Amino acid sequence: MASLPNTIHELFEAQAAAQPDAVAVECDGRELSYGALNARADLLAQKLGGLGVGPGKVVGLCLDRSLDMVTAVLGILKAGGAYLPLDPAYPAQRLSFMLADAGAAALLTQRDLAATAPEYGGPRVVLDDPAWEAGVGAAPPPGGAGPDDPAYVIYTSGSTGTPKGVVVTHANVVRLFAVTDPWFRFGPADVWAIFHSISFDVSVFEFWAALGHGGRLVVVPFGVSRAPHDLYRLLRTSRVTGLCQTPSAFRQLIRAEEALGVAPDLALRWVVLAGEAVEVQGLRPWFDRHGDQSPVLVNMYGPTETTVYSTYRPLSVADLSVPLKGSPIGHPLPDLRIHVLDEHRRPAAAGEVGEMYIAGAGVARGYLNRPELTAERFLPDPFAADPGERMYKSGDLARLLPDGQIEFLGRADGQIKLRGFRIELGEIEAAIAAQPAVSESVVVVGDDPAGGRRLVAYVAPRGGAVIDPQALKTRLRESLPEYMIPAAVVVLGTLPLTPNGKLDRAALPALESAAPAAPPAPAVANDLERQIQGVWRRHLCRDVAPEDNFFDLGGTSLHLAEVHVELQNAHGTMPITVLFEHPTVRSLARRLAGTGVADPAVAAARERARSQKLAMTRRRGVS
Fold first, then answer.
1. Can you give the residue ranges of the Carrier domain (predicted)?
2. Which residues contact 164 (CB under 8 A, 6 or more apart)?
3. What Rg, from alpha-carbon coordinates, does the chain have?
4. Which residue from 123, 95, 92, 124 is spatially nearest to 111, judged by alpha carbons?
5. CA atoms within 13 A on the CB side of 368
């Protein structure tokens, strides 16, 4: 293999030098050329250098999707620092913890986030306020980062209730594109959509697949990311050739295409599926319309701790007729090794279930400021020729198939993957246990009446305390992102135990049988409310009162996308943000009738909706 650049941003700088006038990034009708983006990122790097940012320093990045977001990532890297993505939709308490835990040297943000920005005592740079440019010289950026320096720190859910930051180096990322280029053939003709939040490490692949190879990066606006019909239209108008999706999000896109009709000018070459197990049969409608070569659908697997992706497996029409217990994830990337080991860390026989341990050049540095946890999960690789090599204990179960490929079979511990997010159930349980009224709790994954999966919390009160499920969820939102809030809270007198005194999960009552009989829902006021109520009932599979909050009823971003489509068919085009701002049947009816304003609790509802991390985005962990 030819020698690789030392750092990620050097990939971009080479393209900026070669084609300064080519469009590098577009967002919501605005665009920047490679030359303009490079110059603005250099300016920001100078500013950050003056604030003490350099190799090993972390910079918080709390921005909405925008051109400034792209500038910020490049500017931090050019200054030699590592970026710490802070999703504005996450609770301020969680973001403040990340900034403090990472020892952030600076925070980049924007004016309209000032009221909700996390608590932070260090220097702030407000990127959409031109004042930050004052006094910044035109000298080259300070730089200085090497291949083994951190490029980013992404926090994942922690089983003890404390998120943990994964430290990924420049070398980890640069080699990812070197080893996958023979498959994807990255180049200037490509247009990659950055669909995911930058808090979700799939965004790393989206970002540099375009900007590291002279292609165009299309930043998908938040509202479009939640509206599959609008996303499909954007794929057409922007001539997107590369798209990354969770399987849940892609199913929504498949249905959107069914409704809109197949676009003859769709330019997709690649659709990368990751973040959840792929149910191959759900791809049948897409294969029926497109075949399996244009575009190619690829299933890729990989924890954050091994740099975005660790395996590669093109999916084909032939897979529809192959019986599988789990998700086919293929072979490891060429510079990685995957060991499927039994409980004694010996290689499992072909066909036998074992845990995956991942070794090779993608293995991250470890967890920031967590040496004990790093030592527990990043282990010496006993199968390596070099005794200094490490392997990452993934916690994922798999088996080797007769042809040498790997089949993913789920988790070996209390961690789950739900709509693309990697969630430690223990972190949710720790947050519930911190509530004064709760004596014990357990969180499980249950079936959603609409056919998906949802988080359900079973709680028992302390002494004579009374637990209000809605109030409990409200308090949890102070510290947990929306995707970790249980869709339902079931209050029991005590949790069931086995004869050995352990929690008896099998004895937990079904959600429907645990809930007391609900009083009759208040009557709707008019035909418009009745129509909206009917749409919500169909998609949420439950009764809906006129003042019930869509998200409190268990509505997710996937439900919202389906409701949006149906209401648009009846009432004409509307931004999906209207549903965020009017999360009750009554307020939405008034808005559609032209007589209403947003609910009093709109700001909170909107933030909660936004933070339902895209069924399609964030961190995960696993991509």
1. 523-596
2. 155, 156, 158, 367, 368, 370, 373
3. 24
4. 124
5. 29
Count: domains in the chain: 3
Residue ending a domain, choose from 169, 192, 224 = 169
What pLDDT, on the 0 to 100 scale, is given for residue 597? Answer: 56
Whether 468 maps to a domain, the answer reads yes
**Domain around 481:** 421-514
Bridge pairing between strands 150-156 and 311-315: unpaired
* Closest listed residue to residue 442, CA positions, set 421, 456, 463, 461: 456
* Dist CA 7 CA 147 (whole Å): 6
3-state SS assignment for residue 312:
strand
CATH code of the domain containing 487: 3.30.300.30
- What b-and-e string marks burial along 306-317, b requiring 16 or more CB atoms within 10 Å of the CB? bbbbbbbbebbe
Span 510-559, pLDDT tens digits: 775 555 545 555 688 888 888 888 888 877 767 788 888 887 777 777 77
481 and 560 in a common domain: no
Q: Is the pLDDT of residue 242 over 80?
A: yes
Contact call for residues 540 and 450 (beta carbons, < 8 A): yes
| CATH code for the domain in which residue 46 is found | 3.40.50.980
Q: Would 336 be classed as within a structural domain?
A: no
pTM here?
Answer: 0.79
Residue where one domain finishes, among candidates 472, 491, 514: 514
Does residue 444 contact residue 505 with C-beta atoms inside 8 Å?
A: yes
pLDDT digit string (tens) for 455-475? 899 998 887 788 888 889 989
Q: Which DSSP symbol is given to 615?
A: T
- Residue 451's pLDDT is 60
> DSSP string spanning 152-211?
EEEEE--TTSS-EEEEEEHHHHHHHHHHHHHHH---TT-EEEE-S-TTSTHHHHHHHHHH
Three-state SS for 39-61 is HHHHHHHHHHHHCCCCCCCEEEE
* Residue 331 lies inside a defined structural domain of this protein: no
Q: Note whether residue 244 is domain-resident.
A: no
Residue 619 has pLDDT above 80, yes or no: no
* Same domain assignment for residues 81 and 12: yes
Residue that has been written with the tokens 């135990």 in this structure: 497
Q: Closest Cα to residue 192, out of 26, 419, 16?
A: 26
